[in-house]
Amino acid sequence: xxxxxxELLGAALGATVLATTARAETSxxxxxxxxxxxxxxxxxxxxxxxxxxxxxxxSRALHFWSADGADYRIFPxxxxxxxxLTKRGYTEIVRxxxxxxxxxxxxxxxxxxxxxxxxxxxxxxxxxxxxxxxWPAYIIHGTHDTRKIGRRxxxxxxxxxxxxxxxxxxxxxIGTQVRVI
Length: 181
Prior knowledge:
The protein is α/β, with parallel strands linked by helices. It is 21% helix and 27% strand. It has helices spanning 5-26, 106-111, 162-171; strands at residues 52-56, 61-65, 72-76, 79-80, 89-98, 129-133, 139-143, 152-154, 158-161, 177-180. The strands form 2 sheets. An 8-stranded mixed β-sheet has the order 3-2-1-10-5-6-7-9, covered by helices on one side. Strands 4-8 form a two-stranded parallel sheet. The longest helix is centred in the first third of the chain and has 22 residues, at 5-26. Mean pLDDT is 84; it is low at 12-32.
């Protein structure tokens, strides 16, 4: 399925109208919207023979394509806070976990020696679902802190709203090819 720029902008405008209506009705504010840039899987992979993800750290969006190309979705994300914490390149999903626990990485322990592991739940920075990449300590995960989405706020991971990671989690088998740009 090909989505034109006009269709994407129309959907974004519709989402803005819905968000404005929802804000007026529920007083929930989500003002950290990503500036999506369209991606084409052909610019990143030779074949679309399995589920595919391109995580764009510049536009702060995650692009998903199903193995047959019939399903294309875009999700807003949080991205690493600095270029030093951003790993770019090719990898794949090697493990998935519903209700992940969080453990500080060695570099986080150097900076914050009082940090302790956090079990699943509302205080866990990994949210409700986690998809572990082939690079140690790099994860595509949810977050309970929705203020982070659309911002440079992570120590290297790609974060999504919990409802978006739950949707993506169901679409991505182990072995999904991933490129972080």
